[in-house]
Amino acid sequence: MNPRDRLIVALDLSSVAEAEAMVAKLGDAVTFYKIGYQLAFAGGLAFAETLVRSGKRVFLDLKLHDIGNTVGKGVESVAKLGATFLTVHAYPQTMHAAVDARKGTNLRILAVTVLTSYDDADLAAAGYDFTVSELVAERAGQARDIGVDGLVCSAAEAAQIKPIVSDGMVLVTPGIRPEGADKGDQKRIQTPAAAISAGADYLVVGRPIVAAPDPRQAADAIVREIAAAAE
Ligand code: C5P
Fold first, then answer.
1. CA 228, 222, 117 angle in degrees (round to 5)?
2. Are strands 7-10 and 202-205 parallel, antiparallel or unpaired?
3. Residues 134, 50: Cα–Cα separation, whole Å
4. Which residue out of 38, 204, 210 has the highest number of ligand 1 atoms within 8 Å of its CB and is therefore the one to mutate?
5. Which domains does the chain possess?
6. How far is CA 219 from CA 39, 97, 133, 177, 226, in A?
7. What is the pLDDT of residues 160-181, one digit of tens each?
8. CA–CA separation, 175 vs 177, rounded Å?
9. Ligand 1 — pocket residues by CB below 6 A?
10. Distance, CA of 122 to CA of 187 (rounded, Å)
11. Which among 81, 82, 63 has a CA at the least distance from the CA of 71?
12. Which pairing describes strands 170-173 and 7-10: parallel, antiparallel, or unpaired?
């Protein structure tokens, strides 16, 4: 894979106008964008179609979870937007419904095993009798058996998950910070090079690019680091 196509820039912005300005600034330095709740619910779904028509790839980070029928119908609509990746929570019913509904389209389903803001105490409070590490492993195995296309995981989890998932499954890793970058609210961060070495296929990067004084230069530097680590 071209190292540039392994970088996904998170458009965590509050309006389509801001997102358009950022995409124009980044130009051909970035080929893949992630749209989450904030932008999706502020006109970002129509903007996703515009991005796809302009030749970019789009990851819709909507983390779906509902009864199977509702998930399936939602996935069919997302596929029509032309998105490449869509996230769902890694519950077996939800994953089955999403994988069935994406058949015959170009959409690929990514499962979120356990949210990275959860620790063992949060899982216990939510009624689970598993540690984070046990539940991540359990759900990664279920995702593989159901035929999910990939998983979102922290770079620290990538090495644990890689042996569980099948060869064709992709690992998509947020929480990326180049050496010396501001951590923000991310706790378990890795550099681009470390994430690639741990087995990540795609890196999701938001603030280190979007909030940089020169976003294009920041994106180019990360692509160079991906290329060097992938050699
Ligand atoms: O700005 P930053 O690089 O921290 O952005 C990371 C992006 O990845 C954000 O859009 C965040 O919501 C998303 N994400 C994450 N951790 C997860 C899943 C998604 O940081 N486990």
1. 115
2. parallel
3. 40
4. 204
5. 3-230 (3.20.20.70)
6. 20, 35, 32, 12, 11
7. 999 999 889 999 999 999 988 8
8. 7
9. 10, 12, 36, 115-116, 152, 174-175, 184, 186, 204-208
10. 16
11. 63
12. unpaired
Q: Which atom belonging to ligand 1 lies closest to the Cα atom of 177?
A: 3
Q: What is the pLDDT of residues 182-214, one digit of tens each?
A: 888 777 789 999 999 999 999 999 999 999 999
The pTM of the full predicted model, rounded to 2 decimals, is: 0.95
Q: Per the residue annotation, which of 63, 80, 162, 183 is the catalytic one?
A: 63
DSSP result, 72-137: HHHHHHHHHHT-SEEEEE--HHHHHHHHHHTTTSS-EEEEE-S-TT--HHHHHHTT--S-HHHHHH
Radius of gyration of the chain (CA): 17
Q: Whose CA is nearest to atom 11 of ligand 1?
A: 174
CA atoms within a 13 Å half-sphere pointing along the CA-CB vector of 18: 14
CA 200 to CA 148: how far, in whole Å? 16
Say whether 63 is catalytic: yes
204: left (phi over 0), alpha (psi -120 to 50) or beta: beta
The tokens for 152 are 């979102």
